[in-house]
Specification:
alpha+beta; five-stranded antiparallel beta sheet; four-stranded mixed beta sheet
Length: about 260
């Protein structure tokens, strides 16, 4: 009887590469010394890599190089795959950056007093209320959320195209970055070409209902062209600018661009 082979996840290579980059400093240095060897790194880096510190510096340069290559390969014309309703994952998994990793730890935000703050290179900086946000043109996508931890799930997301919102507030579309600060103290940032991608969305509804607290109420960013940690929840401030802020996980070594 022939052996059946399991087909790999279409994004497994990226997920594995990103997961490897998430090792803490001591683990990564141990990996470099025991598996690759400093001699191999010397050949790859074109310079002497004689200890863990220089190996870590080299890894940082490789990560920066990865960011530049991914940004160069990114295309605003290339769309993430969309799926039929029959493929929606129910229940959709919950995940967070904080511990314990449970939905009851998500922030409780009063919809009546909520305000979205706009800062940076934006002409119209007035705060936005939820009724104002809900009144924006609504689009829906059914796309796959891919977590750096190795799991994925398909969800139905509705809201306004982020490009539409940026144009309405007079954002400088030639700026380099958009940074998100969230009411759970999470921070991340994306490049402007990704912000203008037609599937990048400010999400207010999930699977036909107001975005639940566990999934980011009152608003999250849906970016199907990036890994899950680049999809912030509970957004309270959006900043447009030319300074790379980074983010919560990015400051701990996660690859900044993290595009699919």
């Amino acid at each position: 009887m022939p052996r059946l082979s399991k087909q790999p996840h279409p994004d497994s290579g990226l997920i594995l590469r990103e997961a490897a980059g998430r090792l803490d400093l001591s683990t990564r240095r141990h990996f470099l010394r025991r598996v690759l060897g400093l001699g191999t790194l010397t050949l790859l880096a074109g310079c002497d890599v004689i200890d863990g510190t220089s190996a870590e510096a080299m890894l940082g340069r490789v990560s920066d190089f990865n960011d530049r290559v991914q940004a160069w390969l990114f295309s605003g014309e290339r769309l993430a795959r969309e799926y039929p309703q029959s493929m929606i994952t129910r229940p959709f998994p919950f995940n967070s950056f904080y511990e314990p990793n449970t939905p009851d730890q998500a922030p409780v935000i009063d919809p009546g007093s909520y305000r979205l703050n706009l800062t940076g290179l934006v002409e119209r900086r007035e705060d936005w209320t939820l009724p104002q946000l809900y009144a924006l043109p609504r689009v829906t996508q059914i796309t796959r959320h891919i977590c750096i931890e190795g799991w994925s799930a398909i969800g139905c997301w509705s809201g306004v195209r982020f490009s539409e919102f940026l144009r309405r507030v007079g954002a400088d579309l030639s700026a380099n970055y958009v940074t998100f600060r969230c009411d759970d103290n999470y921070v991340t940032s994306i490049d402007m070409p990704t912000a203008l991608h037609p599937q990048t969305q400010l999400t207010f509804w999930f699977d036909g209902q107001i975005l639940p607290r566990a999934y980011g109420f009152p608003m999250k960013l849906r970016v199907p062209t990036k890994l899950g940690f680049k999809n912030p929840k509970h957004i309270g401030e959006i900043e447009v600018g030319n300074e790379l802020i980074g983010g919560t996980w990015e400051s701990q070594g996660y690859n900044w661009f993290s595009g699919l």
